[in-house]
Amino acid sequence: MNNLILYEGDLLEHYLYIKQTLQANNIPYKEKIKSGNSLLHFLTLFFVAGRGSLGLNKERANVYCIYVENANYETAQALIQNHIHPNIH
């Protein structure tokens, strides 16, 4: 099965909306959450900057990925396009 990436981003709202939309339209998908909270990244910030970072840096946020089959990609993209990219027609 060939999968294409339908969404890759750090907005939980978009991720949840896409999952709900795909489920409501019976489009199978695979998901992956990449965590940017690595110990190596923290230690690098600590030793290079001399301090830890306050709050959550964008580089350290989760990245949400949703994949769909090639055959369903255009349909899935059309279903989410107005929510994810409201200015694109």
Overview of the structural elements:
By secondary structure, the chain is an alpha+beta fold. It has one domain: Alpha-Beta Plaits. The chain has helices spanning 12-24, 39-49, 70-84; strands spanning 3-9, 29-34, 63-69. The protein has a 3-stranded antiparallel sheet. The longest helix has 15 residues, at 70-84. The chain is globular. 10% of the residues are buried.
Question: How is this structure best summarized?
Answer:
With 89 residues, the protein is of the alpha+beta class.
Q: How is the secondary structure organized here?
A:
Layout: E1 3-9, H1 12-24, E2 29-34, H2 39-49, E3 63-69, H3 70-84
User: Quick one: how many beta strands?
Assistant: 3
Structural class: alpha+beta
Poorly predicted regions:
none
- Beta-strand residue percentage: 15-25%
Largest sheet: 3 strands, antiparallel
CATH class annotation: Alpha Beta
How many H/I helices?
3
Q: What is the CA-CA span between the terminal residues?
A: 30 Å
Measured as a percent range, the helix fraction is 40-55%
- Give me the CATH fold name: Alpha-Beta Plaits
Mean pLDDT: 80
How many structural domains can be distinguished in the coordinates? 1
Entry keywords:
89 residues, alpha+beta, Alpha-Beta Plaits, 44% helix, globular
